[in-house]
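@here heads up, posting the sequence + SMILES for the zinc ion run so it's all in one place. Ping me if the SMILES looks off, I pulled it from an old spreadsheet.
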Amino acid sequence: MTRPSHSAPHASTARRITAVALAAGLTLGSGLAAQPAFAVGDGPNYGGNETINTSILSTYDELAAELQKQDAKQSAMELEVIGQTVKGRDIHLAKYISDPENPTILYLTQQHGNEQLTTEGALTFIKSLGSGKMKGVLDGVNILVLPMLNADGAMGDVDFSLEDYIASGDRHLTRYNANEVDLNRDHITKIEPETRALHENVLQAYDIDYMIDLHHQGSRSRADGELVSGSILYPTTPNVDAAVLDGSQRLGSIVYGAIEPTGWGHLGKYVGGTGENIGRNGIAVEYGISTLLFEMRGMADHENPGSVLGQKSNGYLIKQTVTTLEATARAIADGSVETADTTFWDTLTEQSWAGWPAE
Ligand SMILES: [Zn+2]
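bot reply: prediction finished. Complex structure tokens:
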């Protein structure tokens, strides 16, 4: 059920203004790459003095329209509908398959509906693949992008109450799908239509070598005394093949090397479970795909104040996604991922709870 107060009368005006602010933030970030344009750690935290509003985020319909627009514009791109959500929304897969002999990477976003900036970044990445910026990259790598797997959760179109969720704006966003199932615990049973579509029409349909599973976590995790902009982890089930695990760790090395030196990025090692119902583990074992989990800072909406993050952080978090996708696509295309140094994992600090900020 949606409370009337969430249907703000001036939502469209707010969206325009915030979209402009977001675009400005991104431009600033890329223009001042040498400087920490977005200081991690002193970014806004929830405390009632800044804005946690979901109106700035793309709706499912806006995402679908942009994908169709890019599909019409980009000759190298093919847009496929791989299935439907519980509520009947088409699930899209953007495909760039230049040569079946090339290595293939899958980028997956929003298994959890309230973790949306990864999807915004994936959209920017798709646009960049059609621009001169990524010229030549597609000659050496096949790219699959599956944005917003859990579209019903992202739109708050679910069969349970979101009344206690914190964000203001046009809609609430939730981790679960419409049936209140955590899709990232459904990779063995594959009961939900979203999980089935991913497995049957993507993981089983394409010869995939690498995968990055993009998420957001709480806003208060730290490593080495600083709040993290995100944390990464390879498969941790004992059943993963050694070569597959090595691929995951090399992929992680590319991500670490692209994000850590930026000034705005600071990565920790994620602390995650070994269950194969989790995508990072199950997909690595079932398909021999080298998976990497990337948990970025702060969710778009949640019941818990420690989980959400104000929208002033959106710029660097979207940029973190774009940087990750571009760097890994390039490293696979030019073969440098094959020799990436994995020893950084030995010293990468495990993240821990930073506690609440002082009043
Ligand atoms: Zn997640």
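MO: The mean pLDDT is 88.
MO: One more: The two ends are 34 Å apart (CA to CA).
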